[in-house]
């Protein structure tokens, strides 16, 4: 009966829409008026009546400004790369936000307030400090840690969050590839479960956005925008981790990963599985706490003691996150993770060889595009959530009974009609290969070199693993040995061998991703943008009817340009232009090198190039001379050095004496 009533309400609403009925099944082309329910959307409805039948309450879909107006947001991972850009974007675009609660992990000897001050002093907030410094007062620090039950939040702050917060962005995670499985489960999976539990206790939850990764299901070749279930449920895995030690869990890891390279991707997949189950279960509230709620709405079901509501959630899956495209400024970055670390070590001439299938795609996504996708997804699932949720199969009659959904049993995945998943990738619309990125980046790194250049940038990609190992020995191991020997000889600490050990650990971890390729469906990014544009387009038409074409509200004209304020259409991305800003951003924000030093760095690069060529010529000439004259001066020099030093450390006197005896230099020699 409830389902039939819901269908009648939707049908009566669609009859008022001027759009073609063939578009009703399109996820992003919503009617101009639609039913709203207890999802946090305003309850001011425009009720109309007809002589034939009573029409349902309707309301135009809210714009982004209307949706975020007066809302309080809770963010985990706010001190991370993604979290900082998210906070900055929210403060800049939505001045009418109420508050942003940022969960910060407490540090010994440091007040949580001081940690918030350090966060706001970051360079990413330069635009806010310069234009709207008063908006920084909207930030509120919450002491907490996802490793602890209840997120480690004190009862006072917890009650404040329950009463005020309506939107949650969850981006806290450990992204280390070598993290032990048990610890990765604690952060990425159990931490997500605890944040979801908090979200379900909010009095006015509008939307929940979980930042995952596009590589959580790398054991599949094609990855659709849906949640793939693991053979063993997350709850059972967490129970195992609770009583097993680290060694036992690590022994089971290869079986559990099912083709994944490390714990990060597996635990993020478990987190998606867990969130999908929570979405299927929905939210249950005691009717006594929701006495003011209109339970006749189409998305509410009332039993004797509980009320069920859908859990509006979205999963955003970014690929390899790279510096910003436009905001807060082009090329901003604050870490060496992912492709940025590869760019730094290759730009300094340290990395010379990698095992890469160079014709494969390298999927990179700018951080501000990820943030725009999260902001639009939060709005989308809130105003369209009735299409992405289902009624529970059964309802208990007491609020204390634990209700579990059976809709997810024996299933491999949840499709997009149940939970909204966005593959935030570029490969589906604007692909670029590893070889293309190398050809783009190498000339730019020579054009804007680093002040800490070791060799001329020139990294080579090899399909053959054996050929790569040979090249690594010639280009990495031997030069590191020679340079460290010279450093030790001159009294300095040898460091290059340690640097290459770290580089090799990173390249070995990335080899799985440089030698494999995946196909992603990325339609929902375009759907988000088109859905937002449709809302602004409809609002503009309404304003024209109310005020006339010449008297449109100024705010409507500004809000119409949503595609420029929240650019997520990767078809417009120009890779050479982006990498120009990318390399300059790495040089400025990460290496802390002033743009004024570029000419001096270019001169250093020229000297390094000249010295390298001379060394190659000298080495080649020496080898040829040795082959032509076996009893050459080089062999005599080595023999006399061995005799002169008598297996002791080389000293300046020994070297000078050897040179004198070899060449009989008149001004140095005492015996002609």
Description:
- By secondary structure, the chain is an alpha/beta fold.
- The protein folds into 5 domains: 2-52, no CATH class; 64-319 and 363-391 and 403-424, NAD(P)-binding Rossmann-like Domain (Rossmann fold); 434-519 and 573-595, no CATH class; 522-560; 599-663, no CATH class.
- The protein is built from 22 helices and 20 strands.
- The strands form 7 sheets. A 7-stranded parallel β-sheet has the order 5-4-3-6-7-13-18, sandwiched between helices. A 3-stranded antiparallel β-sheet has the order 10-12-11.
- The radius of gyration is 31 Å and the shape is globular.
- The N and C termini lie far apart (115 Å).
- Mean pLDDT is 78; it is low at 1-59, 288-303, 386-417 and 662-672.
Shape assignment = globular
Multimerization state: single chain
The count of strands amounts to 20
What's the gyration radius in Å? 31 Å
Number of helices: 22
**What is the fold named in CATH at topology level of the largest domain?**
Rossmann fold
Q: Tell me roughly what share of residues is in helical segments.
A: 40-55%
Number of domains: 5
Class by SSE composition: alpha/beta
Architecture of the largest domain, CATH level 2? 3-Layer(aba) Sandwich
Strands ordered across the widest β-sheet: 5-4-3-6-7-13-18
The largest sheet, given as strand count, sense and whether it forms a barrel, is: 7 strands, parallel
């Amino acid at each position: 009966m409830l389902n039939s009533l819901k269908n009648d309400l939707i049908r009566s609403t669609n009859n008022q829409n001027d759009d073609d009925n063939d578009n009703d099944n399109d996820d992003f082309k919503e009617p101009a008026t639609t039913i709203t329910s207890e999802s946090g959307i305003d309850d001011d409805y425009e009720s109309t009546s007809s002589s034939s039948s009573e029409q349902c309450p309707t309301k135009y879909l809210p714009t982004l400004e209307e949706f975020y107006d007066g809302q309080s947001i809770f963010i985990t991972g706010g001190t991370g790369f993604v979290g900082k850009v998210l906070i900055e974007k929210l403060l800049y675009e939505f001045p009418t936000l109420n508050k942003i609660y940022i969960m910060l992990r407490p540090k010994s000897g440091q007040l949580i307030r001081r940690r918030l001050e350090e966060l706001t002093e970051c360079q990413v907030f330069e635009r806010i400090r310069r234009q709207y410094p008063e908006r920084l007062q909207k930030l509120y620090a919450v002491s907490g840690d996802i490793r602890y039950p209840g997120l480690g939040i004190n009862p006072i702050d917890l009650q404040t969050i329950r009463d005020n917060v309506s939107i949650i962005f969850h981006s806290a995670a450990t992204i280390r590839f070598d993290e032990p499985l048990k610890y990765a489960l604690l952060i990425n999976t159990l931490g997500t479960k605890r944040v979801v539990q908090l979200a379900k206790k909010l009095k006015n939850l509008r939307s929940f956005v979980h930042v995952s990764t596009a590589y959580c299901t790398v054991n599949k070749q094609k990855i659709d925008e849906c949640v793939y279930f693991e053979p063993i449920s997350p709850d059972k895995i967490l129970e195992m981790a609770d009583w097993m030690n680290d060694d036992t869990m690590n022994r089971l890891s290869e079986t559990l990963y099912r083709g994944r390279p490390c714990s990060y991707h597996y635990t993020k997949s478990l987190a998606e599985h867990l969130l999908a189950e929570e979405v299927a279960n929905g939210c249950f509230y005691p009717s006594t706490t929701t006495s003011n709620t209109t339970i006749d709405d189409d998305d509410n079901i009332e039993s004797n003691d509980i009320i069920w509501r859908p859990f509006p959630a979205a999963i955003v899956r970014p690929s390899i996150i790279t510096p910003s495209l436009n905001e807060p400024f082009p090329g901003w970055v604050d870490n060496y993770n992912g492709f940025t670390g590869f760019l730094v070590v290759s730009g300094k001439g340290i990395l010379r060889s990698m095992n890469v299938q160079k014709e494969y795609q390298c999927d990179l996504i700018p951080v501000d595009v990820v943030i725009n996708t999260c902001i639009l997804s939060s709005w989308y699932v809130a105003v369209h959530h009735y299409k992405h949720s289902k009624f529970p199969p059964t309802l208990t009659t007491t609020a204390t009974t634990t209700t579990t959904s059976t809709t997810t049993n024996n299933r491999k995945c949840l499709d997009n009609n149940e939970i909204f998943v966005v593959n935030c990738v570029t490969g589906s619309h604007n692909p670029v290969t590893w070889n293309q990125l190398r050809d783009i980046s190498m000339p730019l790194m020579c054009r804007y070199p680093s002040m800490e250049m070791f060799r001329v940038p020139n990294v080579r990609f090899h399909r053959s693993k054996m050929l790569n190992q040979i090249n690594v020995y010639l280009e990495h191991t031997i030069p590191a040995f020679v340079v460290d020997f010279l450093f030790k000889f001159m009294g300095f600490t040898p460091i290059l061998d340690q640097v290459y050990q770290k580089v090799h650990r990173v390249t070995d971890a990335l080899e799985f991703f440089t030698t494999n390729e995946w196909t992603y469906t990325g339609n929902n990014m375009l759907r988000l943008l088109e859905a937002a544009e449709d809302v602004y387009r409809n609002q503009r038409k309404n304003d024209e009817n109310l005020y006339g074409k010449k008297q449109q509200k100024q705010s409507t004209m500004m809000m119409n340009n949503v595609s420029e304020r929240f650019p997520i259409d990767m078809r417009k991305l120009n890779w050479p232009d982006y990498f120009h800003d990318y390399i300059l951003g790495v040089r400025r924000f990460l290496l802390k090198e002033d743009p004024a030093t570029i000419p001096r760095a270019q001169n250093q690069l020229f000297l390094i190039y000249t010295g390298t060529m001379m060394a190659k010529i000298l080495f080649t000439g020496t080898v040829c001379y040795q082959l032509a004259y076996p009893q050459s001066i080089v062999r005599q020099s080595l023999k006399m050095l061995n005799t002169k030093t008598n297996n002791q450390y080389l000293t300046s006197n020994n070297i000078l004496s050897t040179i004198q005896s070899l060449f009989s230099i008149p001004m140095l020699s005492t015996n002609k």
